Amino acid sequence: MSIKPVAGHEPPYYAVVFTSVPTGRPEGYGETAERMKELVAEVPGFLGYESARTPGGLGITVGYFRDEESIATWQRNLEHQAAQKRGRAEWYESYSVHVAKVERSYDFERE
């Protein structure tokens, strides 16, 4: 498997940036994260995501969506809402969410 960023898409579209600091109590986190990846991929208008974690633990996930309705569909997903609730109760010391409209996008890949 090669590592690649999400390819550029035709703007406009949206980026949802989720930045988090974990509590250090990850029981159930991995399984839930995998389930969220499966579920979000089913959302019409979902374009992809990228995720990284610093050695100190700060996590950043950026999800890309075609439009605001796609984001709203993801927000209304009941399993996603349950995971958010559990995240606030168990997994995160803190987090932030930023939603941005992408007006320019391009990519590069070495041949």
TrEMBL record:
What Gene Ontology molecular-function terms does this entry list?
monooxygenase activity
Domain ABM, chain residue ranges per copy: 12-86
Q: Which Gene3D superfamilies match?
A: 3.30.70.100
| InterPro entries per record | ABM_dom, Dimeric_a/b-barrel, Jasmonate_Hydroxylase-like
Q: Which UniProt keywords apply?
A: Monooxygenase, Oxidoreductase
Instruction: Identify the domain of life.
Output: Bacteria
* Pfam families for the chain: ABM (PF03992)
Read off the PANTHER family from this record. ABM DOMAIN-CONTAINING PROTEIN, BLL5343 PROTEIN
What is this protein's name?
A: Antibiotic biosynthesis monooxygenase
Q: Which organism is it from?
A: Streptomyces lunaelactis
